[in-house]
Amino acid sequence: MTVTTTNAYNLYNYSDTDSFPVTFQFFETSEIKVTHIDGDGVKTVWSMGTQYTVTGGKSGSLPATGTVTVDPSYSLVTGEKLLIERVTAQTQETVHNSNDAFPPKTVEGAYDHATLLAQEAAFAAKRGLKQGIVDYLANGELEIPAPEGGKVLGWNADGDGFENYDNPAVAEATAVAAAATATQKAADASQDAAAAAAAKDVAVAAAATLAPWTAKTPPSGDVVGTSDTQILTNKTLTSPAINSPTGITKSDVGLANVDDTSDATKDAATTTLTNKTLASPKISGVVLQGTSTDPELLTYPSQYQQEFTITSGNVGSAGAVIHDVSINDDTTDKDNGAVRGIIRQKNSGNSHIRAGEFHTVRSQGDGTKHTWALELGVHSQIAPGDSKQGAGIYLYNNHNGWLPSGQRAGSALLIEGEDGWTNFLEFRDTNSTTVLFKVDQYGAVSGANIRETLVADRTYYVRADGSNSNTGLVDSAGGALLTIPAALNKVAKLDFNGKKVTVKVGTGTYTSAITIPVTVGQVNIDDLIIEGDTTTPSNCDTSFAGFVVTCPVGARAKFRGFKVSGGATSQPLLFASGAGAYLQYDLIEFGTAVAEHVAAYGNGITERRGNCTISGNATSHARAYAGGVNLCQTGTGTLSGTPAFSSSFVRAGECGVVRTSSAVWSGAATGAKFLADTGGGIQAFTGSASLPGATAGTATSPGWVA
Questions:
Q1: Among 405, 518, 591, 643, which residue has the fewest nearby CB atoms (within 10 Å)?
Q2: Rg (CA), the chain
Q3: What sign results for the dihedral spanned by CA atoms 664, 667, 669, 673?
């Protein structure tokens, strides 16, 4: 394709549309720069994927025009403009290998790339200040002096260079400001003098109105010094400091009825309080003893409920009862414990609802009674005659009562809930920022260092506007991941448990190498699917200078709906390597590759299970070596254009096998049809002549073709 346009920009005024044609040619959508200009001329560079999207561009290896589509929430209004520029990447990535067939489109694309760069450089030069040729030959290159504040740039007296000159406007403004300051200082001085004169007049007038001072009679009695004593009568002391007073009795200060207790003995003193109200008391070291024979009975004696009653705060109008604090009784028929505290709701009819309960370890007495190590009851009810012995720690979130008799006997830790508990157990780090592990209501265990067991099929979403800090579980910019490897890192931490996992990839260009993880609990190869756009695979472009997709030892997955290109020497686009490696693919468009499109190595297996398109050159389309197996099982392989294969279309060596079963090939290619050597074999069910290629292939013994 020729470059038919000379401009590298489009400038659009406001119009009632969100679609703006890009009339110049470009390669990559990332090379389009869009600047928004508001009614005041303020320029803002927009971000692709946020304010706009770009379609079009490179067609094969050649540039093409396209379209910029503005997000409706950023539509232009009257007075606004949109500047669309091309900023071509200043790199050259075209590689030609020795003895390759001449690739006209690739060479033409490289010419076009250079032309686009030249256009942009010329346009930039037009926008700068330029020196005339005659002046340049006469005076040489002009240099601009360093900027100076308050100066202006101008020609020197000889007219052959630039100098910095004083700015008359700045000098005039400075002089005006100095004059204004001097005027203000003079005015301030005049005002100060007037204020002083006025103050003097006020003082003279005030003195004239004051009555003469009359002497006061001194108080009677002796005047004492600081070391003498004196009796004070009817005197008020303001903030006095009294040190070591003596002779003061309780009755002197209204405390005649208070016991005589010194500071040294006040903690040991005891007294009986009757009808006394204690405001916010702090009581420690106190033993409260109840009279109930068994606190687990439904009906409590009234005196037991009155041990310690709370009637205020957040416990409700019915109040609550705290009882059984430090019981010390060895009687067999009593419910004994080292420390036991229960908070109950009073007056609850025929049942008592536990708000919280705590028991420490205690010895077992009568065999008909109960023994706990630690019990925490949450919203639970006690049924008459229920058996509750044998539980170490028991957590139950249920308003319908305890478990049936005997179901928790022998449990070290028993947790049950049905009132909204999402996680039965959750352990976090010291900063409470990372969940180390948790057990959910279905029994699934997960965490930073624990493999999550799936109880349902799982889908992770990847989008060009996502973020790897997201969960990947929601198909939105705020929920999806940014890269395919980030999604596969999450997959690697799962126990599939026989469920299916899909990594769904949105439209975009993805340039990270993809490595299929070895999974746990995966039953079938298609239980792990990495899926792009199955309708138009080129919408999901995966390009990388190396192995694009690697399936290592023991890994299995299905890869579909992508365009793949790139690779490197001895690094094919799709690669299965090692025993147990099994990569299945379909609906793939194979672009230009430095090495092979698909290769199986070291007992690894690759398998095509559907239609594919081949639009780019490679050393071979399919290769198997070192015991690898490359299967082309079903579907049609459509060759777009006439791609060239420098080695052969299919190749097998070192006991590797390429096997084409019911696969169909459509289109033409240049290069040999096949090459089999060093014990490699090619099994073409429709005949080797049906393989694409311009010339027949060769089989060098012990290589074989069947």
A1: 405
A2: 46
A3: positive
The region of weakest confidence among 331-345, 498-512, 516-530, 632-646 is 331-345
Dist. CA 178–CA 621, nearest whole Å: 84
Copy the structure tokens of residue 472: 């990947």
Nearest-angstrom CA–CA distance, 403 and 380: 10
Q: Is the pLDDT of residue 252 over 80?
A: no
| pLDDT confidence of residue 49 | 93
- How much of the chain, in percent, has pLDDT values that exceed 90? 43
DSSP 95: -
CB-based contacts of 148-153 (< 8 A; 24+ apart in sequence): none
Residue with tokens 């003079």: 186
Amino acid type, 503: V
Coil/strand/helix, residue 58: coil
Determine if the peptide bond prior to 702 is cis (ω within 30°): yes
d(CA 582, CA 88): 40
In tens, the pLDDT along 22-71 reads: 999 999 999 999 999 999 999 999 999 999 999 999 888 889 999 999 99
> How does 44-55 read in b/e, with b if 16+ C-beta sit within 10 Å?
eebebeebbbbe
Q: Is 602 exposed, middle or buried (0-12, 13-18, 19+ CB in 10 A)?
A: middle
Structure tokens at 637: 């392989």
Map residue 118 onto helix, strand or coil.
helix
The amino acid sitting at 689 is A
Q: Where are the beta strands (DSSP E) in 393-539?
A: 393-397, 413-417, 423-428, 435-440, 445-446, 452-453, 458-462, 494-495, 501-505, 508-510, 514-515, 528-531
Domains of the chain, residue spans: 9-91+104-124, 303-329+336-421, 525-705
Which amino acid does the sequence have at 563? K
Task: Give the span between the Cα atoms of 388 and 402, in whole angstroms.
Answer: 9
| Tokens 């706009």, located at residue | 52
Whole-prediction pTM = 0.46
pLDDT in tens, 79-121: 899 999 999 998 888 888 888 888 888 888 888 889 989 988 8
Going by C-alpha positions, the residue among 47, 533, 548, 48 that lies closest to residue 57 is 48
Distance of CA 112 to the CA centre of its chain: 41
Mean pLDDT within 449-458? 88
Q: Is the pLDDT of residue 697 over 70?
A: yes
d(CA 365, CA 48): 76
Are 426 and 438 within 8 A, CB to CB? Answer: yes
End-to-end Cα separation, the chain, in angstroms: 42
Q: What is the predicted pLDDT for the residue at 203?
A: 53
Are the CB atoms for 518 and 552 separated by under 8 Å? yes
| Residue 394 DSSP SS3 | strand
Burial class (CB in 10 A: 0-12, 13-18, 19+), 346: middle
Angle, CA of 343, 346 and 350, to the nearest 5°: 110
Separation in Å, CA 664 to CA 498, 631, 685, 691: 34, 13, 10, 9
